[in-house]
Aminotransferase-like plant mobile domain-containing protein
Amino acid sequence: MTWVPIDGTPVSGTLRSWGEFFKKDIWQWCSELLGAVPSGHVGSTKYNIKLKWLRTRLQEMPLDAFDHILVQYAPCYVMYLLGSVLFPDKANNTVHVLFLPLLDNFDSIVGQWCSVLAL
């Protein structure tokens, strides 16, 4: 997969400098991208999102909704896949919030991966 673009900011670093680097609060970003924030996380040092919470959000998705509504659930599903399949933790029950910036420009992600899959 040498043709996949790797330009951009790395997924690394500490969460102490999150606000300086991304110019956004972690949980504000979570609310914008996932549609909600897990209870008890705002103002705390819990930087993992439980997969159970993501699964519950996905189960709330209306099955007969229009495409623009379904697209709002896509970042939630991608976070679920990141935490359960690609980068599971030891207990396989949480995903770290460091992956949130990867979902910020979801339209460009979909376009890049569609072009890679077409090759």
Observations:
- The chain has a mean pLDDT of 76.
- The beta strands are 48-50, 94-96.
- The longest strand covers residues 48-50.
